[in-house]
Amino acid sequence: MKLYYLQGSCSLAPHIALYEAGLKFDVEAVDRATHKTSTGKDFYDINPNGYVPVLEIDANTLLTEVPAVLQYIADNTAGTKLAPANGTLDRYKMQSWLGFVSTEIHKNFFPLFVPGVPAEYQASVKETLFKRFDHLEKRLAKSDYLLDSGFSVADIYAFVATGWGSYVGIEMTKWPAIERFRARISPRPAVQAALKAEGLI
Question: Between β-strands 26-29 and 2-5, what pairing exists: parallel, antiparallel or unpaired?
């Protein structure tokens, strides 16, 4: 199994999940500017969309999109529970949170990282993000994790996505429950291992 990743991007979530799962895996970095991998491959030959993550399950099977990759990892752990059982209400709740983080937080951050995006549009995007953070804040003010059943891959994704605020001038202390959530997640050995592997600490 191999994860293609871009340092500090959304692919950090499956990188953390792989460590949490206790699975054996390799990684291959993608260069943001050249779209070449660390072994010289053209990343567009791996994913024509040109973005990470890509999880190479075997020589003939590639999986993309963060929610799908995270659930695959969670369902193939070496014993660690990272997702509720398929078919349960909790599983659907986790999928709901994965969808929320993907479409409402992750995607709304994208314009804030793109050079040349008009300031007016960035301000509008931030206003939307703040509302989404308010929703996340309300949930995390009531519970340590997104699911009542405990820590899951949805928490990993939320941890990664909310971590981008400091890079785009968003003061995350406005949302103290999110800050406490991040403080709970950050010391986990899998998180620290992935951050170290990507050269982020």
Answer: parallel
Are 74 and 83 in contact by the 8 Å Cβ rule? The answer is: yes
138-178, pLDDT tens digit by residue? 999 999 999 999 999 999 999 999 999 999 999 999 999 99
Cα 147 to Cα 69: distance, rounded to the nearest angstrom = 19
pLDDT in tens, 87-108: 999 999 999 999 999 999 999 9
Other CB atoms closer than 10 Å to residue 143's CB: what's the count?
Answer: 12
Please check whether residues 96 and 177 belong to one and the same domain: yes
Evaluate whether 2 touches 55 at the Cβ level (below 8 Å). yes
Rounded-to-integer distance, Cα 42 and Cα 24, Å = 25
d(CA 201, CA 196): 5
Does the N-terminal peptide bond of residue 53 adopt cis geometry, omega within 30 degrees of 0?
Answer: yes
Query: Strand order in 61-64's β-sheet?
Result: 26-29, 2-5, 54-58, 61-64
Count of domains for the chain:
2
Give the domain extent around 20: 2-81+190-197
pLDDT over threshold 80, residue 79: no
pLDDT tens for each residue of 1-15: 999 999 999 999 999
Residue 47's CATH number: 3.40.30.10
